[in-house]
Specification:
Bound molecules: BIS(adenosine)-5'-pentaphosphate
Helix content: 40-55%
Low-confidence stretches: none
Shape: globular
Order of helices and strands: EHEHHHEHEHEEEHEH
Oligomer: single chain
Strand content: 15-25%
Number of strands: 8
Structural class: alpha/beta
Strand order of the largest sheet: 2-3-1-4-8
Number of helices: 8
Largest sheet: 5 strands, parallel
Distance between the termini: 11 Å
Length: 212
Amino acid sequence: MKIIFIGPPGSGKGTQAKRLASRFAIPHISTGDMLREAVQDGTELGRQAQPIMAAGGLVSDDLMIGIIKERLAKPDAGRGFILDGFPRTIVQAEKLDGIVGNGTEPLRVLQLLVPDDAIVRRITMRRTCAQCGAIYHLENNPPANDSVCDRCGAEVIARSDDTEEAVRKRLESFHRQTMPVASYYESKNILRKVDGIGPVDEVFERIEKSLA
Ligand code: AP5
């Protein structure tokens, strides 16, 4: 399975990709998580990416393509993968074709549909584990113990780019730069659209059906 998740910020890409990854036993490759890890580790990549992410902008195509090329070359990605957050621009999509184009397993692209007005509420209510990346929602799926991760016991925090101003910028960049990527895959007949509204389990069922 080679799966790409496309969707606006807060549409549930991370939530669903984690489930799907454990269902198919393939790696969940989230460029957002990789960048946040680099920021946390204080690497050169992290120093470059941090102000761009905090402002809701996009990190340069060259940097992102380099990261993905390196990640997909690792042995665990040989059996398949779920890409979450990549590609986000047409340049990234074209480069990805060059990286995975020779494989026998075709790409499957899932677009999660969630209207903009639902996004802000989801994102401002989101909390993420600083250690293992588990995703919570203060109303729909809160941690059992206040701000402590159910899975690993680390602190559960709000992401620094989850401010209303950054979310608006991220939505704008999604519509301007990433929607053309959805059209790119639609024209190749490999795009499947999935309604992302409703309980997480129901959305997951729709995703499984669309992959069947
Ligand atoms: P990234 O981490 O990829 O952020 P994003 O695309 O904005 O997506 P989010 O992680 O915000 O949301 P999600 O769709 O995963 O939703 P989630 O499952 O958490 O990227 C961050 C930044 O890194 C970018 O802005 C950019 O700067 C940079 N970057 C990354 N990749 C890049 C690239 N390729 N090129 C350039 N720059 C790049 O769910 C959200 C909330 O909703 C949670 O609280 C969850 O519990 C809740 N929820 C989930 N499903 C449901 C449901 N069905 N009903 C109700 N609530 C739900």
